[in-house]
Amino acid sequence: MNLKSLKLFLVVALVPSALAAQDTAVRHRHQPEIDTTRIGVMSPIVVQQRLRLLGYSRVAIVENVRSHVRANAFRSGRAVAVKYDPHSGKTTALPGRFERTPRGLLLVRPDGSAIVPPNEPDQTPRRQ
Fold first, then answer.
1. Which of 106, 115, 54 has its CA nearest to residue 85?
2. More confidently predicted of 105 and 118
3. C-alpha distance from residue 38 to each of 34, 49, 88, 89, 93 (Å)
4. I want to staple 73 with a disulfide (CB 3.0 to 4.6 A). Which of 59, 83, 89, 115 is the partner?
5. CB atoms within 10 A of CB 107
6. CA nearest to 99, candidates 123, 126, 117, 76
7. pLDDT at 82 over 90
C-alpha cells in the first residue's frame, strides 16, 4: 500500500464516525438540563460522612425518613441533636440528644427535660 492509498483509506474510514459524533452532539443539545440544585437521597453512611465533614463527631443516626435524618452527635465536646435534610443539605443542631420512647422520638435537653422535637427550626417545641 502506498502513501496515497493509505490517506484515502483513513479519510473514508474516519469521516463517517466524525459525522456521527456531530449528529449525537446535536441530539443531546435539545434535552432538558439536569437539576443540580438538589442533592440526591443519601444513605445513612453518606449522611454520617457528610456530618463528620461539617465538624460533628461520634455521629449516630436515630431516624432516617425521606424528608430528613435525625442523628445524635458531638460538636466541640458537647452533645447535639442534629436534623439533616438530605435533599438540600440544610443542617439544624440543638443542644441535647434524641431518644426513642414508646411515645415517639423525644429531644432530651442537657438539663434533663424532654420535648417533642420541632419539625422546623422556627416552630416552638412541645413539652412532654
1. 54
2. 105
3. 10, 18, 6, 8, 21
4. 59
5. 21
6. 117
7. yes
Say if pTM beats, i.e. exceeds, 0.70: no
Candidates 107, 111, 102, 112; CA nearest to 125 is: 107
- What lies within 8 Å, CB to CB, of 77 at 6+ separation is none
pLDDT digits (tens, 9 = 90+) for 21-70: 554 455 555 656 655 555 556 778 888 999 999 999 999 999 988 888 99
- CB 95 within 8 Å of CB 79: yes
Q: What secondary structure does DSSP assign to 68-102, as a single string? A: -EEEEEEETTEEEEEEE-TTT--EEEEESEEEEET
Q: Which three cell numbers stand for residue 100?
A: 426513642
Q: List alpha helices for the chain, DSSP H.
A: 3-29, 44-53
Mean pLDDT (the chain) is 77
